[in-house]
Specification:
Elements: H1 8-16, E1 31-32, E2 41-45, E3 51-59, E4 62-68, H2 79-95, E5 103-108, H3 116-129, E6 137-142, H4 149-161, H5 163-171, E7 175-178, H6 186-202, H7 209-216, H8 225-254, H9 257-284, H10 288-392, H11 398-427
Parallel strand pairs: 5-6, 6-7
Antiparallel strand pairs: 1-2, 2-3, 3-4
The structure holds guanosine-5'-diphosphate and magnesium ion (MG).
Guanosine-5'-diphosphate binds next to helix 1.
Length: 428
């Protein structure tokens, strides 16, 4: 435990040897193992408020559970949120007979002085523990690397000698230790485990005052000693803010328009603070049962929200599926129509091609026939000419040959001049 930013989560990381990851923290009273070698984590949390997480590690033959808590004096959480989350964790564990072995309260040695808030929180811590548990409390200091050794020693001395600080706790048995070594080193791990060992070696189980009051005496948080301490602070803060608000409102009555608008901002600021304090007091006055009821309602709202989101997602998915099947059938129909058109076109092209080939073959046949006839006619003509040449040729000698070749043109001329009839006479 301790104020925010003192190094509580880092201390746990030093012990387990790996960073404490918020993402690894589960919600509610469930536990889950995230991946092998990861610490088993239990978490108690109130949505929108503080989160308490439990990390498990093995130490010699012991199973050590380290509970990380949100710190008091946080910028985003009110001390009421923090006390509520921590109290719920203590209530739940003690209700099922899980007892604490000790508490490590962490403080920055680099802090120049104990502020009013730090002192108030320390007072609340003491009330939460009760005197009997103090012998199992380790008051540990961090950030020794951020302070000169002599200055650190002097501050530690002041802490343990001043009864209002750690003095009275030390007298009642609380141990004072330093967390030394550089971040991530073996020395740092050993120093952190040395603090854990102080508690393990005590071999004690403690019941905090706040646990006894809430579980055994059924008191609402506001009626426990720690709750009353916090309530005292809330009431003081409320009175202070009410006074400030009244003084602002008085000034507004006399102010000109420009100043009034400035004061209005201040008025709003204090009104918001007072509303928050009222809410804190309301939470503090709830019984633990009411707190659980509220937590349950918040969880139910979250579950309903998740269900609505799931329903919307399902509807969207169904719409997408419908559209998909529409598109699929549209595509299918269009594809079929195109394929039909294509095969019809192919068939008609084939018929045309066949027709053209047939026509071409016919033409070729006709041409062949013509060529044959022509060749036949030529052959016949040549045969006739040869025949006529033979008939008119002299019996022998070269003179006859020369005459033959002379006579044929003459015959042709005679054929043209005398017409076919003359030819017939000549040929016969
Ligand atoms: N210099 C220095 N920084 C530290 C030391 N211990 C923790 N821190 C740093 O202090 C910051 C707050 O630590 P964290 O563990 O988140 O504090 P928590 O709010 O108490 O849990 C982180 O940036 C840590 O790295 C320390 O011994 N020395
Ligand atoms: Mg932390």
């Amino acid at each position: 435990m301790g104020v925010t930013g003192t190094g509580k989560s880092s201390f746990i990381a030093d012990c387990i040897g790996k960073p404490v990851d918020d993402q690894m923290i589960g919600h509610g009273l469930r536990s889950r193992k995230l991946h092998t070698n990861a610490p088993l984590i239990l978490a108690y949390s109130t949505p929108g408020t503080g989160r308490v997480a439990v990390y498990t590690l093995k130490y010699n033959d012991h199973t050590v559970r380290l509970i990380d808590t949100p710190g008091f004096d946080d910028t985003s959480l009110s001390d009421t949120d923090v006390l509520t989350a921590v109290a719920q964790c203590f209530h739940e564990t003690y209700s099922v007979d899980i007892k604490l072995s000790g508490i490590i309260y962490i403080h920055r040695i680099s802090d120049p002085r104990m502020t009013g808030n730090a002192l108030k929180n320390l007072e609340m811590f003491k009330k939460m523990c009760g005197e009997e548990s103090l012998e199992c409390v380790v008051l540990a200091t961090t950030m020794w690397d951020s302070v000169a050794q002599r200055l650190g020693n002097a501050r530690e001395e002041e802490l343990v000698s001043e009864p209002l600080f750690w003095g009275s706790m030390k007298l009642l048995g609380s141990m004072v230790e330093r967390l030394s070594g550089d971040k991530g080193t073996e020395a740092r791990h050993n120093s952190a485990m040395n603090i854990v060992q102080k508690i393990v070696l005590k071999k004690k189980k403690i019941v905090l005052d706040i646990q006894r009051e809430m579980v055994d005496d059924h008191k609402p948080l506001a009626e426990t000693s720690a709750g009353q301490e916090l309530d005292k602070g809330l009431r003081e803060a409320k009175l202070k803010h009410q006074k400030e608000l009244k003084s602002i409102q008085d000034s507004m009555k006399k102010a000109d328009a420009k100043t009034r608008s400035l004061l209005e901002d201040h008025e709003k600021h204090y009104q918001e603070k007072l509303t928050r304090l009222d809410k804190d007091q309301e939470i503090l006055n709830m019984s633990i049962a009411e707190m659980y009821k509220q937590k349950e309602e918040q969880l139910r709202e979250i579950i309903q929200m998740k269900k609505d989101q799931e329903h919307q997602a399902q509807q969207l998915e169904a719409r997408i599926k419908r559209r998909e099947s529409e598109l699929e059938s549209q595509y299918h129909n269009q594809k079929q129509a195109f394929e039909k058109e294509r095969s019809e076109m192919k068939a008609s092209t084939k018929a045309q091609q066949e027709k053209i080939l047939q026509q071409d073959a016919n033409m070729a046949k006709k041409l062949q026939k013509l060529e044959n006839e022509h060749a036949q006619e030529l052959r016949e003509l040549r045969a006739q000419a040869q025949m006529s040449q033979l008939n008119n040729a002299p019996a022998s000698g070269s003179a006859g040959g020369a005459l033959g070749s002379f006579i044929l043109p003459m015959v042709m001329v005679a054929m043209i001049a005398g017409g076919m009839g003359g030819l017939g006479g000549l040929g016969s």
